[in-house]
Each structure stands twice: as C-alpha cells, then as structure tokens.
Amino acid sequence: MNTSVSKTGFEGYLKGIVERSEKLSYYPRTRGWGFVLTWAHRVAGLILILYMFFHIYTLSGLYHPARFASKMKFLHNFFFSFLEWALAVPVIFHALNGTRLILYEVFGVRDDNLMIRQVFFLSAIYVLTLGVFILMGNQQVSAALFWVMLTIAGAMAATILYKKLWHTENSVLWKLQRISGAFLLPMITGHMFFMHLNYKTGHDVETIIARMSSTGIKLIDFALVLSVFFHAGFGLYTIASDYVGDKRFRGGLAVLIVLVLLVFAYAGAKLVFSI
Amino acid sequence: MSQEYELTLKISRYDPDTDRAWVQDYHLKVGRILRFVDLFRKINDEQDPTLAWSSSCEHGQCGTCGMKINGKPLLTCELLVENAVQMFKTQTFKVEPLTVAPVIRDLVIDLEKAYERIHIVKPYIIEFAPPHPEGDEYRIPPRVLEAYVEATRCINCFCCATACISTQKNYLGPNAMLADIVRLMDPREVANEERLKILYSGQGIQRCRTSQACTFVCPKQIDVAHFIALGKEGKFGKVNGV
Questions:
Q1: Is there a domain that residue A144 lies in?
Q2: Is the domain B4-109 a CATH 3.40.50.800 member?
Q3: Which positions in chain B touch A112 (Cβ < 8 Å)?
Q4: A61, B7, B37, B135: which sits with the fewest CB atoms below 10 Å from its CB?
C-alpha cells in the first residue's frame, strides 16, 4: 500500500503544484502523504496549544467585565475576525486527521488515500461554512440544546473508543489520548461554530457571563478544560519523546510540560467556576 | 539505441581517521539500466577507489545496500538509473548513508549497531509449539499463514526505520516491531506473553505515530503500518493470555 493520492481534477491540479516544487514535494516523494499529514497534525496541535494559552488569558479578562468589553471592542475589526476564522483551519484539520488516525489504528480502516481526501474535503467544507456563519452573524440557537447534543455526541464517541481500546495492552495514557481526542472532536469543532453563530455569542461580555453562569455550561466547560489540557500535555510529551533520547532530560521535560499545563488548566478551571 | 544519462552524484563522505565529513561530486555518463551499486563500482574503478559503500547479495535480499537517494531510503541494488531519473525528475542525486546507526566510512554504516534493536525483539521462535502428532513437521494452515506471510518478507534493510517520524531515540523501529509481530502471528511460537511485553514496552508500538512512512518506503512492499496497527487494535491478545 502507499499513501500517495492519485490525480483527479482539482486534486491533480493541486498535486501538480506541489510536485513542480522540489522543496514542497520532498516529503510527499520520500516519505509519503501520511508522513506529511502527521507533521501537519503536530504543527496544528502546537498552534492550538498556543491559542489555548491565549484563550485562557483573554477570557481571564471576564473577572473585570468592563475591561473585557473594551478589549473585545478593540478586537472587533476585519483583521481579528479573519484570524478567528483562520483558526478554524488547524482546529478542523487536527480533529479530522486525528479521526483518520483513530480509524486506521483502532477500527482497521485501511483505505488511507480515501481518508486523506476526506480530511481535506471535510476540512474545506467546515472552514467555508464557518466563514459564511461569521459573515451572516445573525444565527440563533438554544445554548442548552446545542451543548446537550454536542456533549452526547462527544460522550458517545469517547465511549465507543473506550469499549474498543480499554482492554488492549497499550499504555493507559496512550488510550486516554485517543479517548479524549474522540470526545473533543464534536466538542471543539462545535464550540467554534457556536461562538460564531452571531457576534454577541462569542464577544459580548454580558452574553458570555450569562452563559457561563449556568451550571450545565460550567460542567461542560470544565470537561473541556480537563480533556484539552490532558490531550495537549500528552501530545507535547509525545513529540518531545521522539527527539530526546536522554531519560533524565525527557523526565525533566515531562515535569515542565505538566507544570505549565497545570497552571493554565487551573486558571481555566478557576475561571469556569468563578464566573 | 540505448539512452545515456549524464549524472551527478553528490555523495556524503566521511573519513573516520580525521573525523572529517564532506560532500563530493562525481560526474558519470551511464546507460539507463545500470543500478546505483553499479555506479558506485564504476566510481571505484574509474574515478575514486577510496569511496566506501556496502553491498552483499545485490538482489534485494540482504538489505546491506540501503541508502538515502535524494532523501528517500531505498535499496541501491534495486534502483535503476532510468527509474531514479523518472522518480526524482532530475539527473543529480544526493547519496547519503541511512541514519539508523553511526557511519563507519562514507556510505557504510555500523549494521551491528543497527541490529541491536532487532536482537531485543528476539527475531526467532523463542519457544516452539509441540509438533503435529502425525508427523515431525509443524503444519501451518494456509489461511493462518496468509494473514502474516507478507511480513515474513522483511529483510531488515532499515529503510523503514530511517523514514520513520518517531526517529530512533526511543523507538525500536518499524522493522523490529514487525519481527516481533511476525512471531506473534506465527502459530509455532508459544512465548506470546514475552512477545506482547516487548510489543507494548516503552520502546514498542506506542512510539509509532502511524505516519505510514515505513509502508511507503519498504522495498519489499510490506504494509508495515498495517501490522503495527493490528497490535494497537489489540489483535494479538493480552499479556495474561485473555
């Protein structure tokens, strides 16, 4: 089997662009597209971790609503809206590529060419649809219904994976990484959509505080904080362990990763329960 | 009329006596069906007898001539000039040793060192199942053999280990995992618990990131990633035999 994607129509056109450049085509030609996607998965994960730190930092402004409101006013322009929309690219790619890896590793889905195509195709649909929602900015939905549906979907995905994986001899952290990933797939992609249904949902201080005051939302947000920071921490350690041979140095890095993420997770959890 | 190519080989050189490493260019005019090992021999005969490289069977069965050509790990005894030009769309080739073990000289790596990873997984039957009661040979049903016969083609050329995204710091490597898995799927092997402990150890399949580069580069066309994924899926059972 090989993971090269065959040329058809638009896909062939894009692949042609990659192949014409020696630098762009180096890894697809020498390691395959699966390798390229694995690297992209890592880069997207790192972007999301950095964004998580920034997200917790900006949300901490909710302790001072007036200041938060003025910050949001400052960020309400085309440039920052574009950045918010662009964040959807690493979010959806990481989510769908993670799904591809889980399907390959745990569910025996071996048609990787098809799965790679689906990752790109569904990512494009998601990003474009989100763009349309941001431009419309006038959608309404019941927060309770939306989050109950998403949480059910996340819990179901996590449970299916738990049933399939938990009995295996893989390490507990390895299994939790995949289970948390399955939970986060609908939760984070849904979260992005929810926040951009209309401008107020994601930017108006009173709307945000009112939503975050709900016990149900607090529980969901806390579950999100826990899963995101565990997933991020183990992901970071995974990357570090590929490049650091020395056991002591690796141990030190693991402690550092845990400490930094614990600080941010604590800040996130405190925010969830204080608002 | 046979086509001729004017090639430039940019070969990584290393002199252990002076600990000096450099890249040396060689220009050759060669026919289309010469293999890369033939090119190295031609360089030795006509240009530079000091260039060190290794090969043994030169029929894609021993794995000794594995190298990186323009970044891709492959067997140089199987790579024809014509195919290389077509594959890389160039007549200039960067030739480097594999990265799984220290370089001894030029393109020759310390295969003994590379094989240490394979020795850890015990690439042989640790404990034989009792022979068939009606004969002295052990009979493997064709359907059972079919599931893993592809994996038995591995020649430990270390191309997969070189291509692997998990590098070689803490992972025994795809070919070492494959050697363990082959015996786990082999009904003649009884020591499955020991094998599973190796498979799920800290240097085992949990270090695999499913980049599938192993499958992509394998000169024997083995779907290495598929066999490793079977282990992740738990297809080989549990350590306590459940």
A1: yes
A2: no
A3: 212
A4: B135
Which residue in A has a C-alpha nearest to residue B161's C-alpha? A31
The answer to whether A60 and A270 have CB atoms below 8 angstroms apart is no
Asked if residue A169 is part of any domain, the answer here is yes
> What residue ranges do the domains of chain B occupy?
4-109, 111-232
Best mutation target, A3, A20, A31, A172, to test chain B (most B CBs within 10 A):
A31
Does the pLDDT at position A103 exceed 60?
yes
Q: What is the pLDDT of residues B22-38, one digit of tens each?
A: 999 999 999 999 999 99
Please tell me the total count of domains within chain A.
1
Buried b (16+ CB within 10 A) or exposed e, A251-265: eebbeebeebbeebb
Please provide the distance, in angstroms rounded to a whole number, between the alpha carbons at the two ends of chain A. Answer: 53
- Flag if A105 and B233 touch (Cβ within 8 Å): yes
The string of pLDDT tens digits covering residues A176-221 is 999 999 999 999 999 999 999 999 999 999 999 999 999 999 999 9
Q: Do A167 and B234 touch (CB under 8 A)?
A: yes
pLDDT at residue A157 tops 70: yes
List the single residue in A with minimal CA-CA distance to B204: A170
- Interface A:B, Cβ pairs < 8 A: 111
| Sequence-ordered alpha helix ranges (H) in A33-111 | 33-59, 65-75, 78-86, 88-106
Contact of A54 with chain B, judged by CB distance below 8 Å, is answered with no
Q: What is the ipTM of this complex?
A: 0.92
- CA-nearest residue of chain B to A173? B206
Neighbours of A57 (CB within 10 A): 11
B45 Cα to chain A: minimum distance (Å)? 30
Residue A101 lies in a domain: yes
Q: What is the pLDDT of residue A3?
A: 47
Whether residue A72 is contained in a domain is answered as: yes
CB B157 within 8 A of CB B93: no
